[in-house]
Amino acid sequence: MTIELPHGPKKGESFEVEIERLGTKGVGVATFEALVGPQKEPKRYTLHVRKALPGDRVIATLESKHRRQLTCRVSEILEQSPMRIEPRCSHFGFKHEPGKGCGGCVLQSLDYRHQLLVKEQAVKRYVLAAGLDPGLVWPVIGCDAPWFYRNKMEFSFGNEVKDGPITVGMHPSGYRYDVLGLSECMLESEGSAQLVREIQAWARDEQLRPWAPREGFGFLSTFTVREGKRTGERMVILTTTSAEIAQRSTGEELDPADVAASFLARIEASAVDVTSVYWVQHHARRGEPTRMIEHHLWGEAALREEMHLPGDQRLLFEISPSAFFQPNTLQAEVLYAEALDATGLQTDAASSVLDLYCGTGTIGLCMSPWAERVAGIELNASAVEDARANATRNGITSARFWAGDVGEVLGSPEFVEAFGEPDVVVVDPPRAGLSASARERIIAIGAPRVVYVSCNPETLARDLAELTGEGGYVCERIQPVDMFPHTYHIENVARLRKEA
């Protein structure tokens, strides 16, 4: 249906629309045709409506506008989607409702079966837009335990209202600076939620100020809980500014070390088992390198976690406060098993695996029993040190790791002499996907098989189009794996073989 508008849509105006699909960030997408102005100029507008689901008919109120793309909030749901369910968490909802508006689980009101279907459709849209066959996309592998699955959560200190009491929680959807205090969280564990409540009470007892980036003052920044889902260990991290003086809301000045000691005392008095406590100072000053200064206050120096992988492998990892580790341990085991299957290593003889963007080496290490040698390349030097330590810890001698830019390391004579030509190339790049130089190097290597693990279906589709075009590869299948239920994120494992 085409509507008539006296002028282009303006902030604060509302429109009745039916949501057609979910967009890339889990927001509902609707379109409408309009005849605009006295000349009745035909125009088509796209609305991105936060917390709206396909099949909803809503009144959408415009919050911001970029050309003909309109960002809106739901003012009223006129007719609910048949896929809509009652959310489990009390904090899910709209920001204008008291205690609601958390930005963590944007799809919690969507039935989980439909979440998987929506994510599969999204991957297919990107694949089709890149000129590839959407039939390559297999049904999404869902998460057997879609609640309390995260092994790491970072909660922010802030204020729900200006000059209100300090709170600990999450940023509401679409708001960078506001903080919604949480009494529960359905993504991590009840132990984690209990610690959040206790640290909020501690911050209020101490009358400490949260860091306010817009004003440029304050002390407390974030409170992080890391958990070993296989081991039961728990690490807590208090992150503050690197200010030499911490200030109470009363104006009283405190030694930051005394604040850290008070934090440790509250953790020790908690009924929740904790195995490691850290205080981290975020040093960010103009003209100086940004640094994270870690202080180990108590307990184990690292968090230990296990991963159970094919072939009865049990890999043990030690995770430092700043180290990356897949946030969903149990589903990461599923993801890596799919990646291993895509390599063909369990059935076909292969001598070497090249693991690009290897991080802390997890994928390469899980493939090492089926390969004579594994080489990992990663830009982050500290992650490479972790990868080497993980190999040593698990008695794996066939894996070596290099620090540096993927394109540069692959082109270096030292690497080529040490490793030779790989039979399988595995890539797990960041959300931006493969760099142009990395794509060129992978094509030049011409390995018989390439496995692409991706956290971004848009850049995956772009890179697959390049690899299957000029690169001479054939994409055999794309297997989505749902690592983060109730969010819009979806991981994929793409299997490619070199065309004869």
Tell me what the structure shows.
The protein has 500 residues and is an alpha/beta fold. It has 3 domains: 1-83, OB fold (Dihydrolipoamide Acetyltransferase, E2P), CATH 2.40.50.140; 120-144 and 322-498, Rossmann fold (3-Layer(aba) Sandwich), CATH 3.40.50.150; 152-304, OB fold (Dihydrolipoamide Acetyltransferase, E2P), CATH 2.40.50.1070. It has helices at 112-129, 190-206, 256-269, 329-343, 362-367, 381-393, 406-410, 413-419, 436-445, 457-468, and strands at 2-5, 14-18, 21-22, 28-36, 41-50, 57-66, 69-79, 152-159, 166-170, 180-181, 220-227, 234-241, 246-247, 253-254, 276-283, 291-299, 303-309, 313-319, 352-356, 373-378, 399-403, 424-427, 449-454, 473-481, 491-498. Strands 1, 2, 3, 4, 5, 6 and 7 form a 7-stranded mixed β-sheet that branches. The longest helix has 18 residues, at 112-129. The protein starts with a strand and ends with a strand. The mean pLDDT is 91.
Short description:
The chain is of the alpha/beta class and 500 residues long.
CATH first level of the largest domain: Alpha Beta
Largest sheet: 7 strands, mixed
**Total E-strand runs:** 25
Helix content: 10-25%
Which geometry do the CA atoms define? globular
| CATH fold-type name of the largest domain | Rossmann fold
Structural class: alpha/beta
CATH architecture of the largest domain: 3-Layer(aba) Sandwich
What is the count of structural domains?
Answer: 3
Give the averaged pLDDT, no decimals: 91
* Sequence stretches where pLDDT stays below 50 over 5 or more residues: none
Rg, Å, rounded: 25 Å
Strand content: 25-35%
Query: How far is the N terminus from the C terminus?
Result: 51 Å
CATH homology superfamily of the largest domain? Vaccinia Virus protein VP39
Provide a count of the helices.
Answer: 10
